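User: I'm new to structure prediction. If I give you an amino acid sequence, what do you actually give back? Let's try with this one:
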Amino acid sequence: MSLAPQHNPAQPLLSCQAVNLRRGDKHILRDLNLTLSGGTLTALLGPNGAGKSSLLKCITGELDYGGEIRLFGQPRAQWQANILAHRLGVLPQSSSLNFPFLCKEVVTMGRLPHSEPTARQGEIVSAAMAHCGVEHLANRLYPGLSGGERQRVQFARVLAQIWQAPNALSCPRLLLLDEPTSALDLKYQHQLLTLARALAARDTAVLVVLHDLNLAARYADRLLMLADGRVMADGSPAEVLTPALIQSLYDYPAEVMLHPQSGLPIVS
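Assistant: Good question. You get back a string of structure tokens that encode the predicted 3D arrangement of the chain. For your 268 residues, that looks like this:
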């Protein structure tokens, strides 16, 4: 039996040290440092081409990089893929799945790394779909869904993959979401990010790429602003979302005010 490396609770769930990425002569990431701890939701922001999605692909092992990435206190290379899949969930920008699978079959794919009775697997799949509000799509063919419906089914798949029973002893997890709200209408944008926040509350570190600065301010504990592969700002929404920084990075003369109830910044 393959056992997962033990995680020291004092260590971050994700640590990136001097991560570099190049494509030809172009620097995509430049000496990037980042640590994430459980119980936090961090929004990764920045203009197009800043390196946001590339950073997530380095963390998942899709891209070769320089520097060091450690997951749950251990170098990434020490993790076996099937064991890491119990703790690391990834929702990409889009899915190219075009085979005529039922939606419940797509969500069941999230349980492939696990060994469990079929009945237990079915319970988890049903619960994950209910959490994401897609249980009514269970017997629909996935390719016939709208883009937003596909994204919600895919999020249910990721949720099923790292699922833990509500009364189970919490195990640290890492959730990476790459522009998860891009195909969703307003209701489901907030639903997905509310679910992500609930996961963060259960010893999970959530890293989400967002373009909507107001969604980031509302749901994230911490904002990480990238530009040209570098970290340009790292802090709370109030610290990062300033007119000067937005003007500098987005070339847009934004106005920032505080919400009268929450006190969070609103960008217009």
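You can read the tokens as a compact description of the fold. Here is one thing that stands out. The first helix runs from residue 52 to 60.
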